[in-house]
Amino acid sequence: DTAVSQTPKYLVTQMGNDKSIKCEQNLGHDTMYWYKQDSKKFLKIMFSYNNKELIINETVPNRFSPKSPDKAHLNLHINSLELGDSAVYFCASSRAGLDGKRANYGYTFGSGTRLTVV
Amino acid sequence: AQKITQTQPGMFVQEKEAVTLDCTYDTSDPSYGLFWYKQPSSGEMIFLIYQGSYDQQNATEGRYSLNFQKARKSANLVISASQLGDSAMYFCAMREGVSSFNKFYFGSGTKLNVKP
Fold first, then answer.
1. Which residue did the predictor score with more confidence, A101 or B88?
2. Cross-chain Cβ contact B52/A104 below 8 Å
C-alpha cells in the first residue's frame, strides 16, 4: 500500500484553467503539507494542515486553495493557472515526536505531481 | 539567515569511493531533527537518515552515515562505497521542536554524479 499517494502524477493544462491535485495518506499522521519544487529544485512549503485545521499558510497566491476533508486527505485546488505555476508539487505527511525530546518524525512524501501550464 | 545551507551545488565521485555532502544549519531550539533525503531523476523524495539533536552517536543507515558536529552546527552526509544508483539530488533538512506543526526547512540540494 502506498503511504502517501497523490494524483495525478502528471498534469498538463492551459493557462487560465482550474485544476486540482489530490493527496491521501494511510499512515495515521496528523499533519499534512504541500510543497512546491521549482525548476531549480528548491523546495518551498505552501500549506500545512493539522487535523483538518490550517496551520501554515506561506505567501501563496489566493488562487491556491487547500482543502482537507479529513486528516487523511489534503487536496490542492488551483484557479486561473499561470505559466509560473509550472512546477512539481509534493504532498507530505508527518507526526510529532513521542517523548518531547525527539523531533525525529520526518516527512513521508508523495511521489509528486508535475504540473505544466502551457 | 538561512536555516539550512548546502554549499555544494554539484559533486562528482568515482564509483566505490566515499563522498561527503556538506550541510550546515541554524537554530536556537535545543530540540531539532536533521534529515537527509535523496531525489533521483524519477522525482520521488526518499528518506535516507535522521539525526536527533540529543543523540550522542552519529546516525548510520547502511552505507549512509551522518557526521554530526553539534558545536559547528553541521550535519554532513557520508556515502561509503558509492554506486551508480547513488547519482541523484540530495537534500538536507531540519525540523525544529517536536510538534508536527513545525515545518521542515530544506537546503538547496547537492547534485551527486557517480562516475563509473
1. B88
2. yes
Q: Which residues of chain B have pLDDT under 50?
A: none
More confident residue, A110 or B96: A110
CA nearest B35: which of B92, B74, B103, B89?
A: B92
- For B51, the closest chain A residue by CA position comes to A104
The C-alpha atoms of residue A79 and residue B84 are separated, in whole angstroms, by: 41
Exposed / middle / buried, residue B52 (Cβ in 10 Å: 0-12, 13-18, 19+)? middle
Option in A29, A103, A114 nearest B95 (CB): A103
Specify the pLDDT at position A31: 86
* Contact A95/B at CB under 8 A: yes
Q: Which of A11, A65, A3 is nearest to A34 (CA)?
A: A65
